[in-house]
């Protein structure tokens, strides 16, 4: 297991034919990955009909000047639990740094800060997360399932959710139209 590459701060891109419909065309920002497992936040799909203002209303927070940004489907685990992936220029009581590339917060203080105009300069909100147990992601990386690429700020904040999967492959020099739905064996 010494040759395992930990993927914190990377994006996982679902390969065509991943075999799990919950992850078709998924883009996952890996926020923690070590020998114990991994956690990531899905950033490739917005939840239809749910915007940031409606989420704030559930917490009785006035949106102030905050934009009514889309809320992302972060993953199938705890789909009612919220997370904010954001720039490293803000930190709260539970904020974790993700390889110096972005930060992750999961408490209501970041929502209040954004609504008050005192939060991170760049952010996105997601409900739920993707999680892997010990060795699970490492095993999936060895099969035809995921492709990893460096997590960049532009892909995280400047590309619409529905365009991230294709844009991420293109930024890695891969035309997603040419990807096969299964892996071959030599």
UniProtKB/TrEMBL annotation:
GO CC list: cytosol
Coiled coil where? none
Source organism, top-level taxon: Bacteria
In terms of PANTHER family, this protein maps to: UNCHARACTERIZED PROTEIN YQGE, UPF0301 PROTEIN YQGE
Q: Which family does it belong to?
A: Belongs to the UPF0301 (AlgH) family.
Which HAMAP family does the record cross-reference, listed alphabetically? UPF0301
Name under which the protein is recorded:
UPF0301 protein DVW87_00490
Its source organism is Sphingomonas aracearum
């Amino acid at each position: 297991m010494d040759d395992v590459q930990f993927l914190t701060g990377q994006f996982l891109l679902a390969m065509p034919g991943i075999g799990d419909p919950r992850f078709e065309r998924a883009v996952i920002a890996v926020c923690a990955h070590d020998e114990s497992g991994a956690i990531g936040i899905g950033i490739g799909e917005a939840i239809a009909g749910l915007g940031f203002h409606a989420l704030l209303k559930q917490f009785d927070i006035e949106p102030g000047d905050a934009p009514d940004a889309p809320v992302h489907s972060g993953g199938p685990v705890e789909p009612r639990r919220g997370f904010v992936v954001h720039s490293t220029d803000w930190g709260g009581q539970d904020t974790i740094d993700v390889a110096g590339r972005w930060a992750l917060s999961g408490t209501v203080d970041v929502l209040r800060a954004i609504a008050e105009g005192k939060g991170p300069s760049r952010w996105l909100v997601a409900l739920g997360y993707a999680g892997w147990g010990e060795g699970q992601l490492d095993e999936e990386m060895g099969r035809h399932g995921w492709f990893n690429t460096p997590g960049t700020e532009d892909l995280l904040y400047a590309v619409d959710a529905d365009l991230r999967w294709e844009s991420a492959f293109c930024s890695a020099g891969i035309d997603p139209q040419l990807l096969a739905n299964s892996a071959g064996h030599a």
